[in-house]
From TrEMBL:
<feature type="domain" description="Calcineurin-like phosphoesterase">
    <location>
        <begin position="154"/>
        <end position="320"/>
    </location>
</feature>
<feature type="transmembrane region" description="Helical">
    <location>
        <begin position="76"/>
        <end position="98"/>
    </location>
</feature>
<keyword id="KW-1133">Transmembrane helix</keyword>
<dbReference type="InterPro" id="IPR051158">
    <property type="entry name" value="Metallophosphoesterase_sf"/>
</dbReference>
<keyword id="KW-0472">Membrane</keyword>
<feature type="transmembrane region" description="Helical">
    <location>
        <begin position="104"/>
        <end position="127"/>
    </location>
</feature>
<dbReference type="InterPro" id="IPR029052">
    <property type="entry name" value="Metallo-depent_PP-like"/>
</dbReference>
<keyword id="KW-0812">Transmembrane</keyword>
<feature type="transmembrane region" description="Helical">
    <location>
        <begin position="35"/>
        <end position="55"/>
    </location>
</feature>
<protein>
    <submittedName>
        <fullName>Phosphoesterase</fullName>
    </submittedName>
</protein>
<dbReference type="Pfam" id="PF00149">
    <property type="entry name" value="Metallophos"/>
</dbReference>
<dbReference type="InterPro" id="IPR004843">
    <property type="entry name" value="Calcineurin-like_PHP"/>
</dbReference>
<dbReference type="GO" id="GO:0016787">
    <property type="term" value="F:hydrolase activity"/>
</dbReference>
Length: 396
């Protein structure tokens, strides 16, 4: 009952917000297209509003392309809705101030509407550029442990690929190429490889693209919340295993003298009867003199990981809010929502992710990959390479 009530309230709020947006667009279209009928406009508008939801409804095989189209349209509308919620109240405020000062407003609707649409176009274009052009961020970390060599360990990290109907093979191929160019010792995929459904991942042969990832000591992944939402974890882990990528579910592997630890996502606590293991239980029996690199999709429990002896903790999930000003929210929800943090001796890195959820739009965040140079037996403290070499943009 509580979930039902929450769903009804959410739909009511969503409906009211979009009525507010739709009314403004209706007023503008009446200026530009005087012959438009409300009986045509409002049904079309609300179909677009709920396109993302409609696109997630299971459809017969023959209608699946239509469902995919709805999902794409709906994803872009989500970005438009967020921009509108920011821009339209400002427009109304300007209108109110002008009205109080007695300024003539005969042309205001047209001028304001054109301005808002122009800003919307700029946001969409700039946001699309940020979503599809990738930055490689390099971090050099010192871990005071030994594996018998002074050569730094190169670890390539990608999180939040969200492979599906929006983020497809084109973006994936570029990720594989960029990671392979790092010549990594280990490749780590820190959750949300899938965008819920496994169907487009299989249909478009994305597993065969991931199969091209090359690393001396293996490619490993963990589950994110979206793998749980998709409900195909067993099939997903089997497909990944078949291409040589081990999905770690509260598991530890030792490779080249380094422990790679993969936690189940926090979502397991609500969606699996057994939940997930604690960090202490997961690390029980490990040789703590060896480097421990842990993936945990959602960036939580830093203090616990530090006390347990984890050396490097890798997370994603937040997308750094993906679209501004959401990053103000994620910054307050998480101890670290993006970037680097040293917690005692624990190096924490949270990625903004490679793909996108919903619209392929990013503002105040970028599509990114992480390159780690883990220095063992060193005395250096954490340092980040100069900007010119630490972060390079790769146009996609």
């Amino acid at each position: 009952m509580r979930m039902l009530a929450s769903g009804i309230i959410m739909l009511l709020v969503l409906g009211l917000v979009n009525f507010y947006i739709g009314w403004h667009l209706w007023v503008l279209l009446q200026e530009w297209l005087p012959g438009i009928h409300a009986a045509v406009y409002w049904p079309v508008f609300f179909v677009i509003v709920f396109s993302y939801v409609i696109g997630r409804v299971p459809l017969p095989q023959a209608l699946k392309p239509v469902g995919r189209l709805f999902k794409v349209v709906g994803s872009y509308y989500l970005a438009c809705m967020e921009f509108a919620v920011i821009l339209l109240p400002l427009t109304d405020l300007v209108y109110g101030v002008l009205a109080l000062t007695g300024v003539g407003l005969s042309a205001f609707v047209t001028e304001a509407g054109a301005t808002v649409l122009a800003l919307l176009a700029v946001f969409l274009l700039w946001g699309s550029r940020n979503a599809w052009s990738t930055v490689v961020r390099s971090h050099r970390l010192n871990v005071d442990k030994s594996i018998g060599t002074s050569v730094p360990l190169t670890v390539a990290v990608a999180s939040d690929l969200h492979l599906g109907n929006i983020v497809g093979n084109r973006h994936l191929r570029r990720m594989v190429s960029e990671i392979n160019a790092m010549n990594p010792d280990i490749v780590l995929l820190a959750g949300d490889v899938l965008d819920d459904s496994i169907e487009p991942f299989i249909r478009n042969g994305m597993d065969q693209q991931l199969k091209q990832l090359k690393a001396r000591h293996g490619v490993y992944a963990v589950l994110g919340n979206h793998e749980y939402y998709g409900g195909s974890i067993a099939q997903y882990t089997e497909v990944m295993n078949n291409i040589g990528i081990k999905v770690l579910q509260d598991e530890v592997v030792e490779t080249s003298g380094v422990y790679v630890v993969g936690r189940k996502d926090k979502t397991a606590e609500a969606m699996e009867a057994g939940g997930r293991l604690s960090v202490d239980a997961l690390l029980d029996g490990l040789d703590r003199s060896k480097p421990i690199i842990m993936m945990d999709h959602q960036p939580t429990g830093f203090e616990i990981a530090a006390r347990a002896g984890v050396d490097v903790l890798l997370s994603g999930h937040t997308h750094r809010g993906q679209i501004a000003p959401n990053h103000w929210i994620t910054r307050r929800l998480f101890e670290l929502d993006w970037g680097y943090l040293l917690k005692d001796k624990l190096h924490v890195i949270v990625s903004s992710g490679y793909g996108t959820w919903g619209p392929p739009i990013r503002l105040a965040s970028r599509s990114e990959l992480i390159k780690l140079e883990v220095v063992l037996e060193g005395s250096m403290s954490y340092s980040e390479e100069p900007v010119a070499s630490a972060a390079k943009a790769v146009l996609i």
